[in-house]
Amino acid sequence: MVTALGIDTGGTFTDGVLIDIRTRTILAKAKARTTKEDLSKGIEECIRQLIHSRTGEIKMVALSTTLATNAVVEGRGCEVGAILIGKQPPEKLPVHHYFVVDGGHDINGFVAQDLDEEAIGEAAQSLRGKVDAVAVSSFLSIRNPEHELRAREIIKEHSGLPVVCAHELSNSLGFQERTVTAILNAKLLPIIAELVESVKNVLTKLDILAPMMIVKSDGSLAGIDVIQERPIETILSGPSASIVGASGLLNLDQALILDMGGTTTDIALIKNKEPLINQEGAMVGGWRTRVKTTEVCTYGIGGDSYIQINPKQKKVTVGPKRVLPLCYAAHIHPHLINELEQVKNDTVALAIHQKTDCFLLLKGEKSIKNASPVEKEILDLLTGGPHSLFLLARQLHIDPNFFPFQNLVDAGAIGHISLTPTDILHVTRELDIWNREAALLGVELLAEQYDMDEKELTRTIIDETVNRMVTAIIQSLIIFEDKKYPIGHCLDNILGEKILKLKEKNLFRCSIEITDPLIGIGAPVHAWLTKVKEKLHMELIIPSHAEVANAYGAAIGKIIERSEIIIRPNGSIGGFGVYLPWEYTVFDELDRAKEYALASMIDWVKNNALKAGAHDPKVEYKIDDIYAKVLNADLFVETRITCSATGAPEAIIN
Length: 654
Known about the structure:
It comes from Formimonas warabiya. One of its GO terms (cellular component) is cytosol. There is one protein chain. Among the domains are: 81-184; 559-653, no CATH class. It is built from 20 helices and 31 strands. A six-stranded mixed β-sheet has the order 3-2-1-4-9-10. Strand 9 (212-215) and strand 10 form a beta hairpin. The mean pLDDT is 89.
């Protein structure tokens, strides 16, 4: 039997599946806690569980990862310099060192200014020793990339540094966004290289010689050689894999997909068995890129969402902050039960923090610069294991209200433990995998702190979690209908109350009916979506293996390379200009321009698919001729040619 491994490293868990390549059936599945300090550890643990069930040769390992997304959000990566050609940056850039030089083109691909080659050489020499890579972005390089290509030659001559060109990552308009994309891609180069190397070491250690592939932001696969050149294409890799996995498990033409993880809930729509594609480009860490991704709406609600209570209004909020569940922490570290029991007897009133708060060591002092003496003491106290807020405060002789943990948490030096929806499922016995006593104790402590009834508090937390998911689904459907209409505050009215069923007694009722079925994937969905379904009057489908759909999506993925080019009249000079990713060329006749453009693009996408690891990729194309009516005559505006090449990974064919 020939098999493939699919691995998904989420924010909370690393999931894995072993599948039969021929039938696409799941032979084994596994979960391990994601080890953020070193992703390869969680990956190794997950694979070790899977290969006990191995019944044949593993031909491929496919990985979806949050690493690139998290690195961008956290501002991590190597030091990058940028050289911008022909235009000042319209907005702030994610880089400390950049230069602007003369050059660039106009919308028709003609030179707007001659390239200042001397200035580029001087900039490259100035950047040497200060940065690890250089990003080059020229104004309207998607209409003619010649200045970026020449700049790359000059930079390499003067510095020897790796160079990323913006036109090679996106063919969409938007100078700011393409520049950001090139810079972020350059910053991610060593991060993805390190991940690839560490996972390859794990595979070698486990005697798995299969090639590795990584899920891209559109849900397709690519070989590691391609990904190491274009790591930016792995942002939103995890949510994209979940869409492919859910679609593969059920084979529905159209459906809403909801993936509830530990940190977030991701919602997507499939039409004609394909996910919607975000043509504008992904927004990550506050930066708008030109990386085309699956259209996914992400919300900060998950199994590990931090449950907090407003002391004045006694209003419960769930998320978006993520913490480690009490039930899980106490399962691994049982001494936390005794520490929390002691909190019940403590007379100090908390005005800021919560009695359920505990902390554990993650990366330690190496992850934080200029730690204060108190912060260093906290790290020392946690070296022997996690402790409650109250115990740590007593050891430091400070008031628990002023316990300085936030900088350490933000830096990843320590982790935060508290009450979560996962704990609530243990309280209600809908989940029974970790320490229920810790979950019960967490509810008791919060109820005591805010003078609430324990059963009432549990019901309120459940209702708030469900209502946040209902609101997320409605908001996503509005977005998928191309309407930019935030509904969060709009449900705070009488109709919203009735839709969410916030009051039991009603003289009249309101309801929403959703036409497409809801596919629920992710470990906690069985418990939560049955409650969501009641409020939205929709069909709910939770497939077998829903808890590992992301990993399954990685394992069954295809290689797809897409590109689009345009042909336009060549201004006042005459002829027709073909805007290819690597050149701008002009033909006297439109038919000859189309013939050249189509043949070039077929070769381009096919070769890219082969480079990404595809076997015998099949090419599809579409030609759209656009005309405008002028004085009752048809005036040629442009021709758009879209091409795609699709194939199964070569690794699973041979």
